[in-house]
């Protein structure tokens, strides 16, 4: 395969005649392809007299008895040297979702510069223009402590490489030509790297990152429930104020490590089988499809790691769908105060009727320092809720009795961009 090339040009000279031959491709990548036929409102269903999920009854069944391999404890030192990103900032103690500890770190109103980098999968000469050999090389060319917007246009192709954006390179946007045509892929696992975090194909530690119309893939072999070291992260997002539009995330176990910070996913496609989306991020997933590839006895959609009532974190899913195969939990507790909500979501007949798990159920199973542990109290701290969901997997008849059957007001509150302080930092296109 021809060597990947990256051409660096400023916004002011993108129209040079040397780039004219790429006009059609650039027009495609600039198009707002991430915005299909999704509804324009983010409010939950309000025309139902009963704020419960609607579907046919599902017969009771055995509880989730084949727990998949656990990901590493959140006490793992996840930030690389020099990173200033942290999930330990002290948030407010307000009820519901308090003001985020990140709320003051908004982007500048007027960026000082705007630069475009162009990535291609085929060789072509451009005379004096700077040539890079990979997507990572383009990111490496961004100045440290950057204050300007940098857009990396990635033309059609499969880019086989591990990519990492350090914390001192904010304001980077990746723009692909489509999630089926622009793919960044690698095949590391927890076994091959001695760490679930290090298995990530694409890692983002910087703030103000955006991605549009491309796929992040970990092509490691399909993980089987109970297999040791098979975790294979496609995306690790540890920076604050990140947004993903029309993107794909493909792997098996631990597809998205939604680790820390406020994040927004819209019209995305996520595929995996065990703890597909996990971590301790504060994230809103709108109109996203989550497809399980689990077998008939296992599967888990989320493993959220909120560790205390003061933390503002949680995963909120609005207006999307859960499809595929398996016998999936909607979520299991990766932290004592784990928080996940599904609102106006279509659920195929692949959901474990109990819905949720407080995994593990006793403090004797693991060391007391683990963030996964339930404490000695009999009071449950997880906050798992559903509202207005549809499809054969959405019946609440056999759900665990400690799940929250949300009211319309609660659903509207959590499904708002306010949950991630989005009105202060998301682009106007949202």
Automatic annotation (TrEMBL):
Outline the segment boundaries, as ranges, of region: Disordered: 37-112
Q: Does the keyword Cell cycle apply?
A: no
User: What keywords are assigned to this protein?
Assistant: Aspartyl esterase, Hydrolase
Give the EC number(s) under which this enzyme is classified. 3.1.1.11
Q: Does the keyword Hydrolase apply?
A: yes
In terms of Pfam families, this protein maps to: Pectinesterase
Q: Where is the composition biased (Polar residues)?
A: 64-76
From the Swiss-Prot or TrEMBL record, what is one GO molecular function term? pectinesterase activity
Q: Cite the annotated pathway.
A: Glycan metabolism; pectin degradation; 2-dehydro-3-deoxy-D-gluconate from pectin: step 1/5
Family annotation (SUPFAM superfamilies)? Pectin lyase-like
User: Which stretches make up the Pectinesterase catalytic domain?
Assistant: 132-422
Q: Name one GO biological process term.
A: cell wall modification
- Which protein, by its recorded name, is this? pectinesterase
**Which species is the source of this protein?**
Physcomitrium patens
Upper classification of the organism: Eukaryota, Viridiplantae, Streptophyta, Embryophyta, Bryophyta
């Amino acid at each position: 395969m021809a060597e990947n090339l990256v051409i660096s040009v400023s916004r002011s000279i993108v129209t040079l005649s040397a780039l004219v031959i790429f006009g059609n491709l650039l027009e495609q990548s600039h198009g707002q392809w991430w915005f299909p036929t999704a509804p324009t409102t983010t409010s939950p269903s309000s025309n139902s007299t009963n704020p419960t999920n609607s579907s046919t009854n599902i017969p009771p069944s055995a509880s989730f008895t084949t727990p998949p391999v656990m990901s590493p404890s959140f006490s793992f030192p996840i930030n690389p040297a020099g990173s200033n990103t942290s999930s330990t900032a002290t948030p407010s103690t307000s009820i519901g979702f308090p003001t985020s500890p990140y709320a003051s770190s908004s982007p500048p109103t007027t960026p000082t510069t705007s630069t475009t980098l162009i990535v291609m999968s085929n060789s072509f000469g451009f005379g004096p223009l700077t040539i890079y050999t990979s997507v990572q090389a383009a990111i490496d060319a961004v100045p440290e402590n950057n204050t300007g917007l940098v857009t990396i246009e990635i033309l059609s192709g499969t880019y086989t490489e591990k990519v990492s954006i350090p914390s001192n390179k904010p304001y980077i946007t990746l723009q692909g030509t489509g999630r089926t045509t622009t793919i960044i892929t690698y095949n590391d696992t927890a076994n091959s790297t001695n760490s679930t975090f290090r298995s990530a194909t694409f890692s983002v530690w910087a703030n103000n990152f955006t991605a549009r119309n491309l796929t992040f893939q970990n092509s490691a072999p399909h993980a089987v429930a109970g297999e040791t070291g098979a975790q294979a992260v496609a995306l690790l997002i540890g920076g604050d104020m990140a947004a993903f539009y029309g993107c794909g995330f493909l792997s098996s176990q631990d597809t998205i490590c939604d680790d820390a910070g406020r994040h927004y996913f819209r019209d995305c496609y996520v595929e995996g089988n065990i703890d597909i989306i996990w971590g301790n991020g504060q994230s809103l997933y709108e109109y996203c499809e989550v497809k399980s590839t689990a077998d008939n006895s296992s599967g888990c959609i989320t493993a959220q790691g909120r560790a205390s009532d003061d933390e503002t974190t949680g995963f909120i899913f609005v207006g999307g769908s859960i499809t595929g195969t398996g016998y999936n939990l909607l979520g299991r507790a990766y932290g004592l105060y784990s928080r996940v909500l599904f609102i106006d979501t279509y659920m195929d007949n692949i959901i474990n009727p109990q819905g949720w798990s407080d995994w593990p159920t006793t403090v004797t199973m693991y060391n007391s320092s683990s963030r996964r542990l339930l404490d000695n109290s009999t009071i449950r701290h997880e906050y798992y809720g559903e509202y207005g969901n549809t499809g054969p997997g959405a019946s609440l008849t056999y759900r665990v009795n400690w799940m929250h059957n949300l009211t319309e007001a609660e659903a509207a509150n959590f499904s708002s961009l306010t949950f991630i302080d989005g009105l202060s930092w998301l682009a106007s296109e949202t």
